[in-house]
């Protein structure tokens, strides 16, 4: 069984050296915490991930969820680690202590979550969904409902789900047909939901579903959707469990990956006896869902990054070990020594692709989570608005780019392993299969791209986008003459100008009534936006890393290139910082130029996508 290989060092770099998350402890909400506590959380999270969760990954895939006699069972090996996970308070690690949470900043929770997700995505689905549903109830349900349900969910005694999708309502959530008819103080729910993750399982005694449904006189579309809390088993006034609530599992899907996560068809009210409790007000369900979506979408982005990181680390370890071929410069010498494949330029290219994409998306995700924390605690209105704006703007990038590229990293990692990359002996092919779902659920990546151009760019009169450009311009201005890395900042400036050019074209087209043209280029635009943002973030990192590397070199008396190279081979910190600079250089020179190519494509104003006969 292959081990999960983490990247704690890079997570620590983002947390402390780039973001300086300790600053959050100056605010009252996080006043009881400090760096030592954060370090302890990471250490415990990593221990749990490696010792208890990672060993589940193979059984999750090979045994998977089973549907028999109308009920779902998960591999029996899940039971113990689930208990440990709940007892450790991990479901509510960044939730309000008043409701059973640990109250840590979400950026710290995210750091630990990368370990759990990389160790076994299928296992972590149930606690993650429970957290999302509990958070939604905590924010919008009545005190009575909160008192009855939320703490039991954060502590993992009861699990949770999000039930949106129906056969005719996938991307178009507004088309849900499930009905909710008022019956005294409660509602009778009738309908079928499909693809519901953790919709049924045997980890908990109860499952609390967050269900989108429509009341009889609700207006059509998303404005007529309400949110209901629907328990699998009814809960008595004293908190004990009562009778079954007429929620049944009709089947589970047989999938490409995350086989240890049950993807269920759920039937509500087949016997006319399913009770739901209204959360908040009627017809506001979609507003509540939207408010929770940033968190859930960033969470799915993290899945892309976590599996990419795990796959890259496997590929790196394999490439250092696997001996094959000779140095290209000695190709004609049959007696030349055989080398490890990490010495071959093409393998190095694939590895650097994985390293730079993983580090870029990790930093993008953690920065966005940090902004979410900051927006919650700062007393400064301008700072709050700025931070909240970045969360809105970056969420589609986090979700889409991290999952799109995360999958690609897994595929490249398979390639590094050659034949074994395709075989189950190594976990990389499973990482690839498990990671594919990230681009599909929680709003497909195509829907994210439409969200970026249709909602986020114009939000608050275009202020989010203008702030982004202003901050980026200020960064470029401040760093383009930097001695060692200034040339890369100039590459970023050129890509930023190209992105801004496309934004202008989209705006002109939209204002002249042509909505189709921008939409047909929405996905390439999202990728360009992500690559400009990731390059900016990697440059921020590289500037910090280069300075630290220079300090180490000065301290150790390494001044010429050979001495510096030797130092980076024997000194772990020097090696890490040098690697960090390399990640930026690779991303900026080999990935960022895609922005220029996509811009050229938009500027042709070609409409084949719209006109082609298919
Ligand atoms: C393993 C798994 C777990 C899931 N878990 C959950 C869950 O827990 N809860 C839940 O409610 N749902 C869940 N889903 C459902 C998931 O969110 C949907 O599959 C997803 O939203 C896409 O909907 P769809 O499958 O109907 O595809 P469709 O909406 O039919 O989309 C098919 C393609 O068309 C594109 N498309 C559709 N409409 C538009 C449009 N208007 N503009 C541009 N492109 C469009 C999409 O981007 C996609 O590429 C899960 C699905 C899977 C496979």
How many strands, which pairing sense, and closed or not: the largest β-sheet? 8 strands, mixed
Structural class based on helices, strands and sheet pairing: alpha+beta
* Total DSSP helices: 20
> Low-confidence segments, ≥5 residues, pLDDT <50?
none
What's the helical proportion of residues? Answer: 55-70%
Mean pLDDT: 97
Report the sheet-strand fraction.
5-15%
Radius of gyration: 25 Å
Total number of beta strands: 14
- Associated small molecules: flavin-adenine dinucleotide
* Overall outline: globular
N-end to C-end Cα span: 46 Å
Name some characteristics of this structure.
single chain, 614 residues, alpha+beta, two-stranded antiparallel sheet, 20 helices, binds flavin-adenine dinucleotide
Short description:
The chain has helices spanning 8-18, 35-53, 56-62, 79-87, 106-119, 121-140, 143-154, 285-321, 345-377, 381-416, 428-435, 445-456, 459-479, 486-511, 516-520, 522-556, 561-570, 572-591, 594-603, 608-611; strands at 66-68, 71-73, 158-163, 179-183, 186-197, 206-213, 226-231, 233-235, 241-244, 247-252, 263-268, 275-279, 323-326, 338-340.
């Amino acid at each position: 069984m292959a081990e999960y290989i983490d990247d704690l060092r890079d997570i620590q770099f983002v947390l402390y050296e780039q973001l300086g998350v300790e600053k959050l402890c100056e605010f009252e909400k996080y006043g009881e915490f400090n760096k030592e506590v954060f370090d302890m959380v990471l250490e415990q999270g990593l221990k749990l991930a490696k010792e208890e969760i990672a060993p589940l990954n193979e059984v999750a895939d090979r045994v998977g969820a089973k549907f028999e006699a109308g009920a779902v069972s998960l591999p029996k090996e899940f039971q113990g680690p689930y208990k440990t996970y709940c007892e450790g308070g991990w479901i509510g690690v960044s939730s309000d202590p008043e409701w059973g949470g640990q109250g840590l900043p979400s950026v710290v929770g995210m750091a630990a979550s990368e370990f759990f997700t990389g160790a076994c995505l299928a296992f972590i689905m149930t606690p993650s969904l429970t957290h999302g549903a509990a958070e939604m109830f905590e924010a919008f349900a009545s005190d009575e409902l909160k008192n009855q349900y939320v703490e039991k969910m954060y502590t993992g005694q009861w699990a949770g789900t999000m039930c949106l999708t129906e056969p005719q309502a996938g991307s178009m959530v507004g088309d849900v047909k499930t009905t909710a008819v008022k019956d005294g103080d409660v509602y009778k729910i009738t309908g079928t939901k499909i693809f519901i993750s953790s919709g049924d399982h045997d980890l908990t005694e109860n499952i609390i579903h967050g269900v989108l449904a429509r009341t009889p006189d609700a207006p059509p579309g998303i404005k007529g959707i309400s949110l209901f809390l629907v328990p699998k088993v009814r809960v008595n006034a004293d908190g004990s469990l009562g009778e079954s609530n007429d929620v049944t599992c009709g089947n589970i899907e047989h999938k490409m990956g995350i086989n240890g996560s049950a993807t269920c068809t759920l039937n509500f009210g087949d016997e006319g006896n399913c009770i739901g409790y209204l959360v908040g007000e009627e017809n506001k369900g979609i507003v509540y869902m939207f408010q929770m979506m940033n968190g859930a979408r960033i969470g799915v982005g993290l899945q892309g990054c976590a599996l990419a990181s795990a796959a890259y680390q496997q590929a790196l370890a394999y490439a250092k070990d696997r001996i094959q071929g000779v140095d290209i410069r000695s190709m004609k010498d049959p007696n030349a020594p055989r080398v490890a494949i990490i010495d071959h330029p093409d393998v190095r290219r694939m590895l650097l692709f994985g390293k730079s994409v993983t580090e870029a998306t990790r930093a993008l995700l953690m920065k966005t989570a940090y902004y979410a924390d900051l927006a919650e605690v700062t007393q400064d209105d301008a700072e709050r608005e700025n931070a909240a704006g970045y969360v809105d703007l970056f969420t589609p990038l986090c979700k889409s780019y991290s999952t799109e590229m995360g999958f690609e990293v897994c595929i490249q990692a398979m390639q590094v392993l050659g034949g074994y990359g395709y075989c189950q002996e190594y976990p990389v092919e499973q990482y690839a299969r498990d990671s594919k779902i990230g681009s599909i659920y929680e709003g497909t990546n195509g829907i994210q791209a439409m969200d970026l151009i249709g909602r986020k760019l114009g939000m608050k009169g275009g202020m989010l986008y203008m702030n982004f450009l202003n901050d980026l311009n200020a960064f470029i201005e401040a760093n383009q003459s930097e001695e060692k890395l200034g040339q890369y900042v100039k590459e970023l400036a050129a890509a930023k100008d190209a992105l801004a050019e496309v934004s202008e074209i989209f705006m002109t087209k939209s204002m002249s009534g042509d909505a189709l043209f921008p939409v047909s280029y929405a996905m390439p635009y999202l990728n360009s936006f992500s690559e400009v943002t990731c390059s900016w973030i990697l440059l921020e990192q590289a500037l910090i890393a280069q300075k630290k590397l220079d300090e180490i070199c000065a301290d150790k008396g390494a001044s010429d290139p050979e001495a510096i190279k030797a130092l980076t081979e024997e000194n772990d910190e020097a090696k890490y910082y040098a690697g960090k600079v390399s990640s930026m250089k690779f991303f900026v020179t080999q990935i960022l130029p895609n922005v220029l190519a996509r811009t050229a494509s938009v500027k042709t104003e070609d409409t084949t996508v719209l006109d082609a006969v298919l």
